[in-house]
C-alpha cells in the first residue's frame, strides 16, 4: 500500500487521456455510494515526524541549513543542555473529489506498469555518473528531507535563537558577577579577587564577541533563504540522496510547512520519488561574472548558495516529481 504525499494530477490526466483516447470519468450515483462506504471503513493512519531544532549551551543547529558556533567557555562550566481523506459522498461535489482521488491513485499504478514495460527507453532505476539520465523517468527510494523556505525563514529569527543559545551562559556570568559584588570591600584588593574579576571580564568579552559572530551568521543565512525563495520556482523541495525535487503546492496532499515540520529531518525514514530527470548540477562554484557568459553564469549562483546551505552538491540531479509516497 502506498501512502501518497505528492501526486501530479495534471500529468496523470494527460497520461490517462493519451492512453484511453480521452480522460475517463465516473458519474454514477451507485459508484459514489460504493466509494463512500469503502472510504469510511478504511480510514488510514498518518505517520509523523518533524523537523528538529537542537539546542545546547552555546550551540544552535537547524539540520541541513545552519549550525552556530560553539559558545563553550573553557575552564568555567561544562556545557549543559536545554532542556484519506474521509468525506460523505451524499452530495455530488464531495463524491467528485473522492472519485478523482481514487482515479489518480489508480492512474499512478498504471503509469508505473507502463514504465516497467518501457525500461531503458524512457525509464531508469538508478542515477549514475557514467550514464546520461536526463530526459528519462526514474524511481528513487532513499532517505530524504523536506525543505520549505517559507517555514525556515520564519524559524530564522536571530534574536530568539540568540536567547536560546546564550541564556544559560548569561545566567552563569550573572552568578559570578553577583559573587564578585558580594565580596567585602576589604577583600577586593587581594590577588584572588583581582584574578577572579579579570577572568570574569575576559569571559564576558568572549561571549559578547561570540554573540555578534552568531548574529552575523544567522542574518547571512536568513538573507540567503529569502533570496532563494524569491528566485526558485517553488518554496518547497524534497532533498534526497543525490537529488533535489521542486514540489508544486497544488499537488501536495499536505501543506509544505506541515510536511517540513513532520519530515524535515527524517534521516532514517525512506521515501520513494517517481519523476522525470530534467537536469544535473555540473558546477556549484561561485561564478566569476567577468566574461561574455555572465547571464548564464548567474544561474550557477543558485547552486552555489544551495551548496553553501548544504542542501545540494555537484553531481546532484534535478527531478520533476510525478509522485512521492511511502511504501
Automatic annotation (TrEMBL):
It comes from the Bacteria. The keyword Coiled coil applies. InterPro entries: DUF6414 (IPR045633). The keyword Coiled coil applies. Residues 169-224 form a coiled coil. Keywords: Coiled coil. This is Uncharacterized protein. It comes from Ureibacillus thermophilus.
Amino acid at each position: 500500500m502506498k501512502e501518497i504525499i505528492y501526486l501530479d494530477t495534471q500529468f496523470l490526466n494527460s497520461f490517462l487521456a493519451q492512453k484511453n483516447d480521452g480522460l475517463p470519468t465516473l458519474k454514477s450515483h451507485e459508484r459514489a455510494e460504493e466509494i463512500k462506504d469503502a472510504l469510511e471503513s478504511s480510514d488510514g493512519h498518518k505517520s509523523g515526524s518533524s523537523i528538529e531544532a537542537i539546542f545546547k549551551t552555546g550551540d544552535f543547529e537547524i539540520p541541513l541549513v545552519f549550525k552556530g558556533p560553539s559558545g563553550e567557555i573553557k575552564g568555567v562550566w561544562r556545557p549543559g543542555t536545554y532542556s484519506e481523506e474521509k468525506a460523505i459522498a451524499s452530495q455530488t461535489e464531495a463524491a467528485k473529489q473522492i472519485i478523482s482521488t481514487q482515479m489518480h491513485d489508480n492512474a499512478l499504478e498504471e503509469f508505473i506498469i507502463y514504465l516497467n514495460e518501457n525500461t531503458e527507453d524512457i525509464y531508469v532505476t538508478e542515477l549514475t555518473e557514467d550514464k546520461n539520465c536526463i530526459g528519462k523517468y526514474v524511481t528513487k527510494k532513499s532517505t530524504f528531507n523536506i525543505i520549505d523556505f517559507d517555514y525556515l525563514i520564519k524559524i530564522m529569527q536571530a534574536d530568539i535563537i540568540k536567547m536560546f543559545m546564550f541564556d544559560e551562559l548569561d545566567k552563569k556570568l550573572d552568578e559570578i558577577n553577583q559573587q564578585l559584588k558580594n565580596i567585602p570591600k576589604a577583600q577586593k584588593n587581594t590577588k584572588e579577587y583581582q584574578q577572579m574579576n579579570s577572568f570574569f571580564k575576559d569571559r564576558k568579552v568572549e561571549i559578547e564577541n561570540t554573540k555578534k559572530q552568531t548574529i552575523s551568521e544567522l542574518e547571512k543565512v536568513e538573507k540567503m533563504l529569502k533570496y532563494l525563495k524569491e528566485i526558485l520556482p517553488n518554496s518547497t523541495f524534497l532533498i534526497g540522496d543525490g537529488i533535489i525535487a521542486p514540489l508544486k503546492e497544488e499537488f501536495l496532499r499536505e501543506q509544505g510547512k506541515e510536511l517540513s515540520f513532520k519530515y524535515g529531518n527524517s534521516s532514517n525514514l525512506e521515501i520513494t520519488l517517481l519523476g522525470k530527470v530534467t537536469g544535473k548540477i555540473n558546477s556549484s562554484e561561485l561564478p566569476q561574472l567577468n566574461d561574455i557568459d555572465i547571464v548564464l553564469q548567474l544561474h550557477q549562483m543558485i547552486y552555489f548558495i544551495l551548496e553553501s546551505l548544504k542542501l545540494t552538491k555537484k553531481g546532484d540531479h534535478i527531478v520533476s516529481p510525478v509522485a512521492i509516497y511511502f511504501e
